[in-house]
Write a structure and sequence with these properties.
Cytochrome Bc1 Complex, Chain D, domain 2; 9 helices; 2 domains
């Protein structure tokens, strides 16, 4: 709870320092608030927190607006985007979208990886997320995303708990077992597009 208070305080201080849009002109406090959870340059080291680096700009913009407006409920983000303009959210999205893909973990479990690769083909994940899983437009990058975040998201979609998120995903993973979702998350977190 104390961390949330500190983040909100930094956010308010940062909002007071803004003079003009554009990430380069956003305050150091704003950058610190984002980096505290999502990591420097968007490479998250925190469990359950997604990496933002190399996500499609439009996807990031959309998610930021949905969270700011309270349509997508992410408890740890509550209040952090209050008062930010669309231009400021666009600047944040642009900033993170320009970093290269995160380097995937090297601890690949061959059986789980193969099972996840097979499932990704059977479930046709590459149709929307592209065959390289780098995402596009309003569809997120899955390649190299944190495994724990992917698994949690897949479970939320399957269990109809992903409020404010793409309802097509709920249909895509309907009936998938926990084992299937673990394999899929393991595979996608380790995909390294060429």
């Amino acid at each position: 709870m104390r961390h949330l208070f500190i983040f909100k305080a930094l956010l308010l201080l940062g909002a007071a320092v803004f003079a003009a849009p554009g990430w380069g002109q956003l305050s150091v406090q704003r950058q610190s608030v984002c980096a505290a959870c999502h990591g420097a340059q968007g490479y998250s080291q925190s469990q359950g927190v997604p990496s933002l680096a190399a996500q499609p700009k439009l996807f990031l913009e959309t998610q930021l607006v949905l969270m700011r407006e309270g349509i997508r409920d992410v408890p740890s983000m509550k209040g952090l985007l209050d008062g930010l303009t669309d231009t400021e959210l666009t600047a944040i999205a642009q900033y993170y979208s320009e970093f290269p893909l995160p380097k995937p973990p090297e601890d690949r479990q061959p059986t789980l990886y193969s099972q996840g690769e097979k499932l990704s083909k059977e479930m046709r994940c590459g149709i929307c997320h592209l065959p390289t899983f780098v995402g596009r437009e309003q569809i997120p990058r899955l390649a190299g995303q944190r495994e724990d975040f992917l698994l949690s998201s897949l479970q939320q979609f399957r269990n109809n708990q992903a409020m404010g998120r793409d309802s097509n995903m709920a249909a895509s993973v309907q009936g998938a077992s926990d084992e299937d979702l673990r394999a899929l998350a393991h595979y996608l977190s380790r995909v390294q597009p060429q």
